[in-house]
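Researcher: Next entry in the queue.
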Amino acid sequence: MTLSNRDLIELTAWRRKLHQYPEISNEEKMTAKAVVDFLADTRPDKLLTGLGGHGVAAIYDSGKAGPTLMFRSELDALPIQEISGVAHSSLIPGKSHMCGHDGHMAILAALGRQLGRSRPAQGRVVLMFQPAEETGNGAADVVADPHFGEIAANFVFSLHNLPGVPFGQVRLKTGVVNCASRGMRIILEGKTAHSSMPETGISPMLAVSKLLPALPLLGTGTFADDDFGMLTVTHVSMGEAVFGIAPGRAEVWATLRTRRDDRMANLCASAEALAADIAGEHGLSLLYDYQEIFLASVNAAEAVAHLQQALDDEGILHTEDNLPMRASEDFGIFGQGTAASAMFFLGAGEQHPALHNPDYDFPDDLIAIGSKVFMRLVHNLL
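Model: Structure for this entry, 382 residues:
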């Protein structure tokens, strides 16, 4: 099955409307409604909403025994002010689809349109529109949802557009494709004082000055090494923005990144021990917590083999170049149960603005390519 020119025009228009009205992680209520409304004409056999927050799952059932295939896209945008200048730029100040999730939704919607015209020969297809990928809680919340068992799949597939890769080419490999990561917030508490008498307080200034260069040194190995660990300081704050108060509190934020989940535990322990030593040395109390937790995303060999066959059938060039990536992705959670999962990366162009850059916009011509690969998987497996 192929999309008509009219399909592509309508899908492109819908993608651009999504682009104009972005919603960030855990706030995707109207985006989810837009998905439900667009899929209405495809008459899914079952539609689940509110999965793990605002997640939507559309089920297309052949009525015959067979495997269940799930295809996943994301709903959320980013807290970034867009400067792309395109006619369909975000109309919501400080929010924008700078990762291309609007395009990923359009690709799944294209698949839904095709399935609405012709159900799979056997088994089921589930289109999973997942919330909150950017904060790392979305996939976990969907899998933990009591209704997730209704869409349990044998295979789960996804894609992500990738600037820097020639347009329409694919990057795909078995094993780790995205790093594990998490945000660590270190809070140092002392005692504030009048700035004329700083000796009466306990300032975190010297502790922060030691912590900032020491944290990145906890990283180990090169990225090619399975024991790779990386720590990046992302934010620092200390005291109030006034001249009359000597600070008594500071926060240091850092992102920890590893190729393996078990290596992450060791890196966290090292960062915690370092922070404790420095806080104790300067008479400060220490608190820390972790946010935006992403496990490593690992492609299953069987799922990759099916993707490779689909790409070959469609004549799409694919290599393992550029993989694995340092960036994180929560998709791998779908493959931690009985399902075999795999994500591939679809080239957005070598000179295309990078993901999360304020001038990025999803290339609409990828809608036809991405949906063609997914439809080929349905044809081959069902």
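Model: The chain has two domains: 5-177+296-381, 180-294.
Researcher: Noted, moving on.
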